[in-house]
Write a structure and sequence with these properties.
- With 455 residues, the protein is α+β, with helices and mostly antiparallel strands.
- The chain folds into two domains: 15-165, Four Helix Bundle (Hemerythrin (Met), subunit A) (Up-down Bundle); 176-455, paralog of FGE (formylglycine-generating enzyme) (Alpha-Beta Complex), CATH 3.90.1580.
- Helices cover 30% and strands 13% of the residues.
- It contains ten helices and 14 strands.
- The protein has a four-stranded mixed sheet. A three-stranded antiparallel sheet has the order 1-4-14, with helices on one face. A three-stranded antiparallel sheet has the order 5-6-7, with no helix packed on it.
- The longest helix is centred in the N-terminal third of the chain and has 24 residues, at 15-38.
- The radius of gyration is 22 Å and the shape is globular.
- It starts with 14 loop residues before the first helix and ends with a helix.
- The relative contact order is 0.15.
Length: 455
């Protein structure tokens, strides 16, 4: 699949431009939803491919139901089209493992419902005011439409995870990322200077509540990897007995290793000759040494970092490395500046079905020389998922607030499975530290000694 990168542009007050951006984001998401649900037959849509995931047909109707609730009911004030299905598609009412037993809409009916909602939503989009001042908060700068486009893209990523978990032949194809013309020869790590920077955002019109508000954050100097940790580097950890040595693991991580007999990232296995292979969207292939390691849990990322004599960066460190421009002291939207992502800057939008080689995308490099901070793989950080100072839940507590606490770890930067509308320098993802089916990798950091930074 090839998709164009047309996320929301930087803050604009032009209502017609906002309308165009919202329509484009909604249409791009729906094309992807259609691809993910039309490439398999109905039996595959209704099957549960893993107890960790919903049937694909549940995601399809849930996308339509959320769009109806927010754009047709909340924004336009219309009566519910199908109020009786609301409980079926409430993500908090029924755990994923139970959803196949529910009286869900059949594939044809789910498609028809989502399509009818979309048609009505586009009518609402054409008549809604986006007044920056004095207008309703939900529609100001097109927020509700941006929120729904992001929601659909997040479920598209979830459905892509389901495709990775399903058995059988490949149902999806996409071109590979461009290979590096020559190996990346930059430094293995860079110094991020200490001092304050502005974290989060108060200006990005489609930013979600957990990204807000912008606030001053003081970060001591530290070193961070210039690229994500590769499969080759992770194989060294494995070969050195990384999964056999309890000293590298937290107690909970070590218990997970023992309880589940972990020996490698998810979807990896060895052939008869001892070579490591992986299964990727129905295709078995040799593990590529130069790609960022993928499908590792927070426990595995943390253990590797300890083994390497390093650590995971905090969320504050990650964002400073991704947004801070030392020449101006300003926090940018993306590592390369304020311009929207383009295919030569970041691997996003399911354009490819794998990460690009570590060290790719020199045009996406930060001013400090860090690469691939956006796209390719979600990056685990050391931080728990917590609210920023001044956080206000909006427009509903169940998006972020109910997940705050030490149970969830923060991931940053997006992956090849993330659309640009749902990925920016301030965007925050979170998951349980045990999760491996997500498109997760990591990079490492280390403290900077005072004799190195001159402080």
């Amino acid at each position: 699949m090839t998709t164009r990168h047309h996320p929301q542009e930087h803050v604009t007050d032009d209502p017609e431009r906002l309308r165009s951006l919202a329509a484009d984001a909604l249409e791009r998401a729906r094309r992807r939803t259609t691809l993910l649900t039309s490439c398999v037959d109905e039996s595959e849509l209704t099957a549960q491919h893993s107890p960790l995931m919903s049937p694909l047909v549940w995601d399809l109707a849930h996308i339509g139901n959320q769009e109806e609730q927010w754009l047709l009911r909340a924004v336009a004030g219309r009566e519910a089209m199908r109020p009786e299905i609301d409980p079926l598609y409430d993500a908090f009412e029924h755990p994923r493992a139970e959803r196949p037993k529910l009286p869900l809409l059949a594939p044809r009916e789910a498609r028809g419902y989502a399509a009818e909602v979309r048609g009505r939503a586009l009518d609402v989009l054409g008549s809604t005011s986006f007044e920056a001042e004095g207008g309703a908060r939900l529609t100001r700068s097109g927020f509700a439409f941006g929120m729904i486009a992001q929601h659909e893209q997040q479920h598209d990523e979830t459905m892509l995870i389901t495709h990775q978990l399903r058995k059988g032949a490949a149902a999806l194809t996409a071109p590979d990322p461009e290979p590096l013309t020559e190996p990346f020869r930059g430094p293995a790590e860079v110094l991020v200077p200490g001092g304050p920077f502005m974290m989060g955002t108060s200006a990005e019109p489609w930013a979600l509540d957990n990204e807000r508000p912008a606030h001053r954050c003081l970060v001591p100097p530290f070193h961070i990897d210039t690229a994500p940790v590769t499969n080759a580097a992770y194989l060294e950890f494995m070969a050195d007995g990384g999964y056999e040595e309890s000293r590298w693991w937290t107690p909970a991580g070590w218990a997970t290793v023992r309880d589940h007999a972990l020996r490698a990232p998810l979807f990896w296995h060895r052939d008869a000759g001892g070579q490591w292979l992986r299964r990727r969207f129905g295709v078995t292939e040799v593990v590529p040494p130069d790609e960022p390691v993928l499908h590792v849990s927070w426990y595995e990322a943390d253990a590797y970092a300890r083994w390497a004599g390093r650590r995971l960066p905090t969320e504050q460190e990650w964002e400073k490395a991704a947004r801070f421009d030392p020449a101006t002291g300003r926090s940018m939207r993306y590592p390369w500046g304020d311009a929207d992502p383009t295919p030569d800057r970041a691997n996003l939008g399911q354009t490819h079905l794998r990460p690009a080689p570590a060290g790719s995308y020199p045009r996406g490099e930060s001013p400090l020389g860090v690469r691939q901070l956006i796209g390719d793989v979600w990056e685990w950080t050391a931080s728990d998922f917590l609210p920023y100072p001044g956080f206000v839940a909006y427009p509903y507590k169940e998006y972020s607030e109910v997940f705050f606490g030490s149970e969830h770890k923060v991931l940053r930067g997006g992956s090849f499975a993330v659309d640009a509308v749902a990925c920016r320098g301030t965007f925050r993802n979170w998951d349980y530290p045990v999760r491996r089916q997500i498109f997760s990798g990591f990079r490492t950091a280390r403290d900077t000694r005072t004799d190195e930074d001159g402080s």
